[in-house]
């Protein structure tokens, strides 16, 4: 008799726990993310009434991914307050063999629900030359691009926010992948492309 009462009590506790946890997990967004695409871009030339200067545009490397976020039933907003993209890029080690890991966390705001938007990350001409010793951009200096997308600070449903060019997210956790913080990645607002194609991309949170 005591055992039956104990089993009933445990069952009630389990049901109560599930009831508490389910709404939390139920509010997690699901992310549909395409594999990142590479592009070589030249520094843009802007006109205006400024004096003309000798200027030869240099190459940038851009990686961008198309994302669409689906929120669960009961989410009554048309926009998401914050979407965080944790970029991971493996590039050739400029000081030796193998590859090093470059990282950048970019926060996006006012991201529409159920609508295609793009997120991107950039490697500057100076970084390209530092890695390759050449002014010309080459995709060969990059081994893999990947990362993880968080929705309002939470991991996306069923790991749907993880992405990678090689189809194997998580390679950045390998012990053989050493991180380098002295070589920067740049978000779009930190580049000359800030005002270009503005409506294509998710808005970047401004630093206060």
Written overview of the protein:
This protein is 16% helix and 37% strand. It has helices spanning 2-26, 125-132, and strands spanning 30-33, 37-42, 59-70, 79-92, 99-112, 117-123, 142-151, 154-155, 162-164, 178-179, 203-204. The strands form 2 sheets. Strands 4, 5, 7, 8, 9, 10 and 11 form a 7-stranded mixed sheet that branches. Strands 1, 2, 3 and 6 form a 4-stranded antiparallel sheet that branches. The longest helix is centred in the N-terminal third of the chain and has 25 residues, at 2-26. It has one domain (28-44, 57-204): Immunoglobulin-like, CATH 2.60.40. With 208 residues, the chain is an alpha+beta fold. It is flat. The chain has 2 helices and 11 strands.
In short:
Keywords: Signal. InterPro entries: Amuc_1102-like (IPR049970). Helix content is 16%, strand content 37%.
What low-confidence regions span 5 or more consecutive residues with pLDDT below 50?
12-25
Q: From the alpha carbons, calculate the radius of gyration and give it in angstroms.
A: 22 Å
Helix content: 10-25%
Average pLDDT works out at 88
| Count of alpha and pi helical runs | 2
Largest sheet: 7 strands, mixed
Strand content: 35-45%
Class computed from helices, strands and strand pairing: alpha+beta
Total domains, how many?
A: 1
Secondary-structure element pattern, one letter each: HEEEEEEHEEEEE
Which fold does the CATH topology refer to? Immunoglobulin-like
Please report the distance between the alpha carbons of the first and last residues: 63 Å
CATH architecture: Sandwich
Number of strands: 11
Keywords: Signal
Signal peptide: 1-26
